[in-house]
Amino acid sequence: MHHIDDSLGFILNHAGRRLTLLLALRYQPYDITTEQWSVLNRLYEQDGISQKELSRRAEKDQTNITRILDQLERKGLAERKANEADRRSFLAFITPKGRELNETLLPIENEVIRLVQDGMTEEEVALLRRLLKKLTHAAEEAIQEMGEQS
Fold first, then answer.
1. Residue 126 confidence class, pLDDT cut points 50, 70, 90
2. Cα atoms in the 13 Å half-sphere on the side-chain side of 138
């Protein structure tokens, strides 16, 4: 008999939700959600990108990116400016306040990851990383094949 607790999809989803919750609890004092931080961190990595590119990098749809950028702008962490090359789009930028907050949050994220990796060897962590990337790649290929069929 197959138990859902043994399903790889369930295990991955559960682990992801637990990590997100742990990070959310650590970020609560800074009044930022993990979803907002993922977008802020992408802007920290590369500033002045289009919302479309930000959407791709943050793996969020355009509607969610717009909503998250609205929230980040209200908090003074990001801003949008007209794209001189394409008047129909905007470029997103991190503000100095957003950069400072991200530099505060990065070590917290690193600490959460260290905490959950406690008890794992470097080899196990490296293997887990490789296997998760392999699984993600296989899922992406399957999604593309389905897109080509429809």
1. very high
2. 6
Q: What are phi and psi of 66, to 5 degrees?
A: -60, -45
Architecture of domain 10-118: Orthogonal Bundle (1.10)
> Is 94:44 a contact under the CB 8 Å cutoff?
yes
Closest alpha carbon to 91 in 73, 76, 79, 75: 79
Residue-by-residue DSSP string for 64-102: HHHHHHHHHHHTTSEEEEE-TT-TT-EEEEE-HHHHHHH
The three-class DSSP label of residue 50 is: strand
Model pLDDT for residues 76-97, shown as the tens digit of each residue = 999 999 888 887 788 999 999 9
Domain assignments of the chain as residue spans, ordered by start: 10-118
Can you read off the two tokens belonging to residue 111? 């600490």
Q: How many CA atoms lie within 13 A of 95 on its CB side?
A: 14
For residue 92, the cross-strand partners are 49, 80
Q: pTM of this prediction?
A: 0.85
